């Protein structure tokens, strides 16, 4: 299993970026082995609209089955649902802390998208 | 001749000016309310019959039988309106700009024509005025496509008065850019002036001559007049803040129908516009 986490930096000690579509990086990590790659999301950061859709497609392409982020908008959520990717929102702290939360099982998966906001 | 009536912000009396100008003239003309997010010229210009037409625009519909999930369409789309997950194409119609690129590029002819409703255009005749106004569908995010549809009613040699959306954003620029002259309606207040300065800059970018109508001319301060003089902006009409004027407006009445004096002033406004436009043409 792989997990995608929106992050402000490129390693596991980076802070979680509360934005998904416009996150600086998306870290794709295997929670068991902690093997990871950081995907530069800067092309999306500057896109006018629909950044979340692109980011969601990318998460699917990299084979992640869970996304952890601060906020996930309706279009991104819809895309992730079709891809069968589960979403944990309201995640903060570092990427490592987020992974530990996930492993301890103390996470709730999002049933519906977070309300529309202007990230 | 196309005259746009615009303003830096809403509520400055833009519609009062566009409707009274249209009503005052004694020649056939078109009045187009392009303030499609909040049209209100129809509250003053009231044709007996309005014909309503629904306007819609192209959005892709994917034929899943034909689609192979090759992603060519999603890679092409500049607006992120398409996403491919596995072999399924997701369409986000509200992001689509109707360029039809996805349809052209699809190697399987899997992109079919669908529609997104933009809104409606109402058209009717009132005296010498052919009047049309657009009303954006609730939930529709983009107004320029509907504004373009309203403006497509313009024929060569028409005399046209456009009620443009307020502000300097894309819809406002879109409505003004076809015009030969922009009439800017403003108020002599600090807020009014601030918005006016931005609008004048935008109109100058478009290289369209413009002039001012000052509404509620006796409130506020002189700043606006100093600015107009510095910038060489002609003040073509001043409308005072008067109870009788406010009453006519609140009843949905037209100033020029109630007062011959105001009819004369609006006719003079039109003459001044023609003159200012002609002078601008000479100086160019
Ligand atoms: S028509 Fe153009 S904007 Fe709309 S989905 Fe196709 S490529 Fe994207
Ligand atoms: S280009 Fe055509 S075949 Fe390829 S994914 Fe898009 S709709 Fe499907």
Query: Span from first to last CA of chain A?
Result: 29 Å
Q: Can you give the helix content of chain B as a percent range?
A: 25-40%
Question: How would you spell out the order of helices and strands of chain B?
Answer: EHEEHEEHEEHEHEHEHEHHH
Annotation, overall tally of beta strands of chain A? 5
Largest beta sheet: strand ordering of chain A: 3-2-1-4-5
Strand content of chain A: 15-25%
Q: Largest beta sheet of chain B: what is the strand line-up?
A: 3-6-7-2-8-1-9-10-11
Class inferred from helices and paired strands of chain B: alpha/beta
Shape-level CATH architecture of the largest domain in chain B: 3-Layer(aba) Sandwich
Question: Looking at this structure, what is the CATH superfamily of the largest domain in chain B?
Answer: P-loop containing nucleotide triphosphate hydrolases
The total of helices of chain A stands at 4
Count of the separate structural domains of chain B: 2
Please explain how this structure is put together:
The complex is a heterodimer of chains A (119) and B (284). With 119 residues, chain A is α/β, with parallel strands linked by helices. Chain A has one domain (3-104): 2-Layer Sandwich (Nucleotidyltransferase, domain 5). In chain A, 29% of the residues lie in helices and 18% in strands. Chain A has four helices and five strands, in the order βββααβαβα. Chain A has helices at 42-45, 51-61, 74-82, 95-104, and strands at 3-7, 25-29, 36-40, 66-68, 86-88. In chain A, helix 3 (74-82) links the parallel strand 4 and strand 5. The longest helix of chain A has 11 residues, at 51-61. Chain A starts with a strand and ends in a 15-residue tail after the last helix. In chain A, 38% of the residues are buried. The mean pLDDT of chain A is 91. Chain B has two domains: 2-55 and 119-283, P-loop containing nucleotide triphosphate hydrolases (Rossmann fold); 59-117, Alpha-Beta Plaits, CATH 3.30.70. The mean pLDDT of chain B is 94. With 284 residues, chain B is an alpha/beta fold. Chain B has helices spanning 14-24, 72-76, 101-105, 144-151, 170-176, 190-205, 223-231, 243-250, 255-258, 260-283, and strands spanning 2-7, 29-33, 51-62, 82-85, 88-91, 111-126, 129-136, 160-163, 181-186, 210-215, 235-239. In chain B, helix 6 links the parallel strand 9 (181-186) and strand 10 (210-215). Chain B has a nine-stranded mixed β-sheet with strand order 3-6-7-2-8-1-9-10-11, with helices on both faces. Chain B has a two-stranded antiparallel sheet with strand order 4-5. Chain B contains ten helices and eleven strands. The longest helix of chain B has 24 residues, at 260-283. The complex binds iron/sulfur cluster (2 copies). One iron/sulfur cluster is lined by residues 62, 67-73, 84, 89, 106, 108, 110-111 of chain B.
């Amino acid at each position: 299993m792989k997990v995608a986490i929106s992050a402000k930096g490129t390693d596991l000690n980076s802070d979680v970026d509360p934005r998904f579509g416009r996150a600086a990086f998306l870290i794709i990590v295997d929670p068991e082995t902690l093997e990871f790659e950081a995907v530069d999301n800067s092309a999306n950061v500057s896109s006018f609209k629909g950044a979340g859709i692109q980011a969601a497609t990318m998460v699917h392409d990299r084979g992640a089955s869970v996304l952890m982020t601060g906020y996930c908008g309706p279009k991104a959520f819809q895309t992730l649902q079709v891809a069968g990717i589960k979403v944990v929102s309201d995640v903060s702290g570092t990427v490592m802390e987020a992974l530990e939360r996930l492993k301890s099982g103390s996470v709730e998966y999002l049933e519906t998208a977070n309300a529309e906001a202007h990230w | 001749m196309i005259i746009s009536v615009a303003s830096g912000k809403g509520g400055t009396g833009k519609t009062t000016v566009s409707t009274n100008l249209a009503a005052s003239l004694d020649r056939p003309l078109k009045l187009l309310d392009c303030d499609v997010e909040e049209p209100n010229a129809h509250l003053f210009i009231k044709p007996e019959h309005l014909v309503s037409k629904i306007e819609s625009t192209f959005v892709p519909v994917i034929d899943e039988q034909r689609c192979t999930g090759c992603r060519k369409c999603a890679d092409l789309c500049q607006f992120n309106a398409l996403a491919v997950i596995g072999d399924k194409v997701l369409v986000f119609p509200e992001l689509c700009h109707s360029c039809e690129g996805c349809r052209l590029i699809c190697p399987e002819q899997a992109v079919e024509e669908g529609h997104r409703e933009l809104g409606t255009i109402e058209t009717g005749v009132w005296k010498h005025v052919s009047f049309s106004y657009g009303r954006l569908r609730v939930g529709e995010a983009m107004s320029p496509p509907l504004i373009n549809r309203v403006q497509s009613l313009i024929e060569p040699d028409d005399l046209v008065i456009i009620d443009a959306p307020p502000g300097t954003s894309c819809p406002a620029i879109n409505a003004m850019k076809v015009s030969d002259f922009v009439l800017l309606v403003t108020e002599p207040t600090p807020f009014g002036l601030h918005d006016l300065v931005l609008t004048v800059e935008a109109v100058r970018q478009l290289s369209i001559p413009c002039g001012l109508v000052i509404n509620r001319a006796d409130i506020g301060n002189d700043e606006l007049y100093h600015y107009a003089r510095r910038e060489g902006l002609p003040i073509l009409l001043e409308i005072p803040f008067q109870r009788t004027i406010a009453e006519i407006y609140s009843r949905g009445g037209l100033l020029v129908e109630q007062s011959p004096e105001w009819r004369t002033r609006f006719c003079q406004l039109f003459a001044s516009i023609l003159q200012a436009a002609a002078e601008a043409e000479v100086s160019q």
